[in-house]
C-alpha cells in the first residue's frame, strides 16, 4: 500500500451515478475520492483545487462534454490520468476519447474490482481498456512492425513517460518523439498512446 492513498475525482452529470461510484471506493484503503464534478467546466475547476491522480470521466454531459474536458485537463495537468467511464462503446466515441489522450476506457457495467484495478493501473502509467473495446482495437490488422527505436519510445510511453521525458531519456527532440509516435500509431492501427500500449503488449512487442 502506498504511503498516501491515490487521489480520485469522479465526473458525471448524474448524482446517483456519482454516489454509486463513490460507494465503490468507500472501503478501499489505497484510493481516496477527493472530488466530484457534474460537468466538464466544474471538473477543470475541481482538478485545479484537488489535484487528483486519476479522474473517472463521463463522456456525455451538458456544457463542456467529457472529451472537451479531457483535452483541457491534458493540456493544463498532463500528470493527471483520465479513465473514461461511460455507457457508450461506439467506434466514434472510443476514438474521440483515445485521441484526447486518455489512460483508459471502461463501460459503466464494469465490476467494482475492475474499477479499483483500473485506477491503480492508470496511476502507475498503464493503459486500461474494457475487453470489448480492446478486442475491437486489437482486431485491426497491422500494417508493419514498429522499428526498434519506435519500440523504445513505446516502452517509455507504457511506463507513463511524457514526450519531454522520453526525449530527455533517449537524447532526441520532442518533435522526433512525436514523429516516432505518429509512425507507431499508423503501424499498429491505433489512435492513442493507451491503445498503442495495449496492442503492443498483445503482440509481444513490450
Automatic annotation (TrEMBL):
Keyword set includes DNA-binding: yes
Alphabetical list of Gene3D superfamilies matching this protein: 3.40.50.2300
One Pfam match: Response_reg
Keyword Transcription appears in the UniProt entry: yes
Annotated ranges, domain Response regulatory: 7-123
Residues modified as 4-aspartylphosphate: 58
Record's keyword terms, sorted: DNA-binding, Phosphoprotein, Transcription, Transcription regulation
Name listed for the protein in its UniProt record: DNA-binding response regulator
Every HTH luxR-type domain range: 139-204
